[in-house]
Specification:
The chain is mostly helical. Helices cover 64% and strands 0% of the residues.
Length: 236
């Protein structure tokens, strides 16, 4: 059909009556998120000391002016990036322990999900367990807060343990510190992919003081596939 010989108004009306195809354009994360992701990736690859703002900008595909809009300097960006990781892990841990399940099962589930998430996000593992040492006093204090949270979640086992009166006050703190040390060593050695295989042993280690050998062994040997989806431990 030709528009020739027809008025502009008629032509426009006819054109407007035709169906329009919606084109979905790809979206990219906002600049701040891209910079935070690039910081984690760069620090995990090069280490904090060898990470430069220009390298982060290159990985993010952004200009220096954009960086200045969001962060004061490299350290500020790194602090914000690690806070995102830590905050997400905190929220995931709390959500995990709010599930309707026995405490020992929640410990097992939480460890499995944490180890799975670290294996899926090796850059996050490297930053949290190795490079966080460069986050300064505020970063160290944030680490202590997270340790205290996990300690409190493990400490819940004391209330149901038949051995409660025999357990030292620092039991849960020692458990969390021991697990963190193991994760640090595996990450430092570049063996993050192996972490999920440690779930049964670490579960047994965490439960042993509270449930005894038989109870801890039984819980550690169980599977929890039905619980393992739905809670993200790190930002995506």
């Amino acid at each position: 059909m030709s528009f020739e010989g027809r008025s502009n108004a008629e032509a426009e009306q006819t054109a407007d009556s035709r169906p329009h195809m919606a084109v979905a354009l790809p979206t990219r994360p906002d600049p701040r998120k891209r910079l935070l992701e690039a910081m984690i990736e760069t620090v995990a690859l090069r280490g904090y000391d060898r990470t430069t703002t220009s390298r982060v900008l290159s990985n993010a595909g952004l200009e220096e002016a954009v960086f200045s809009e969001h962060f004061h300097d490299k350290h500020h960006c790194f602090a914000e990036a690690t806070e995102d990781l830590i905050g997400q892990a905190e929220r995931a841990a709390i959500a995990q322990f709010e599930l309707d399940a026995p405490w020992e099962e929640l410990v097992r589930i939480g460890l499995e999900r944490l180890l799975d998430a670290l294996a899926e996000h090796p850059d996050a593992a490297r930053v949290l367990f190795v490079e966080m040492l460069y986050a300064g006093p505020a970063g160290c204090e944030r680490q202590r807060e997270v340790t205290a949270l996990f300690t409190s979640l493990i400490e819940r086992g004391r209330a149901k343990s038949p051995y409660a009166d025999q357990l030292p006050p620092q039991t849960s703190e020692a458990i969390v510190g021991g697990i963190a040390s193991i994760l640090h060593r595996r990450t430092l050695d570049g063996r993050v992919a192996e972490l999920p295989s440690l779930a049964p042993d670490l579960t047994y280690f965490a439960l042993l003081p509270y449930l005894g050998h038989e109870g801890a062994l039984e819980s550690a040997a169980a599977t929890s596939t039905e619980w393992r989806a739905g809670i993200d431990w790190f930002p995506r």
